[in-house]
Amino acid sequence: MRERWDQVWRGGRYLLIGLPTALAAMLVVPLLAVGALSTGLGGVGLVVFPRMVASLRLWAEWQRRRAAALLGVTITPRNATLAKGVRAQWRQLLDDRENRRDLRWVLQHIVIGLAAGLGALCCVSFPVGGLVAATSWWLFPVDEPMTVLLGVPVTEWGTALGLGAVQVALGGALAWWAMPSLARWEARVSLAALEPSAEDQLAERVGELTESRAGVLDAHGAELRRIERDLHDGTQARLVAIAMRLGVAREALPDDDSGTLARLLREAHEGTEVAMTELRDVIRTMYPPILADRGLEGALASLAAGSAVPAELDLGELGRLPAAVEAAAYFIVAETLTNAAKHSGATRATVRMSRHDGRLIVEVTDDGIGGADESRGTGLVGIRRRAAALDGTVLVSSPLGGPTAITVGLPCAS
Fold first, then answer.
1. Average pLDDT of the chain?
2. How far apart are CA 12 and CA 9, in angstroms?
3. Which of 127, 162, 289, 326 could form a disulfide with 168 if both were Cys (CB 3.0 to 4.6 A apart)?
């Protein structure tokens, strides 16, 4: 019983507070319209309108907190701060989906908040009216008596007390039954208007994953460069020193010495040189040193210059790329040019690279015989796997008779 009365009290307070806010919302829409139109009047709106939208966000957040507290749910606060600079503020205004939800809530609150608030006002005023009529009927003149339930005139205490008690009881029952449900319904509708939809949540999640992936790629690239540098400057240098000492030791042995010591030194020397060769291959496949020395443009120029098929480079504005994306693009171009030299019979190839909508587009075409088939070799499969590791895409166009075009898209947004 006490818990139910607490629900009635909290629901009634929630709805009655929402009634004046719904009335105020009727002024918000024209004010926002005036603020938007004022952008063309001396540019005043360029400064004022973003602040009006930010104020609307604060108001909507207050409503979200009220609704969440009534329903007993947890919400994540939304950012209501403005960026610095007029241009940044307008970019934030146009890009933020939350602004559209705030405006949708204001329009909805005018209708639903007003109706729910008036309903709560009726639930409260009905028993209060009966109580007032039952106690103050005698203040009215006899020819114009007060009326209570169903418009019955009150002219004596018995009628006043009896009908007043009935009206108070009916009003209390109506508030007991309807007020909590009406308040919860209005709170759920408000939260639904202000919370992102499933599509918006998916888009926001994709954005978060894109940002986190960019951070992972940067960290991965930095780690690759560190390992490559350590192997190149540390391990490889020590192997070179060991090989030199072993070579000197072999030279110091008598020429005719074919004993066990000479054989062991020879095997150790040759094994060290094999290890250095394998280490260089590992370093090149991890993060090619030429990328660190010359950058992606210089590395691609070196690939084109050394290609068995004459290759032409067409590079757009690439900007800063994650190291993992640079390495993947380098290896994809290298593998594609190698495949063209081995299988296509091409006399010319073109490598185009550009950056568009947060993706690095790598396109390699040749004038060979075409007919590239992934099932007949590992070249295209390797390219596809390398791109897939970064959530990239690969399109292959290679009709019989040529030409062959391989287009790879690698995400590189930061």
1. 76
2. 5
3. 127
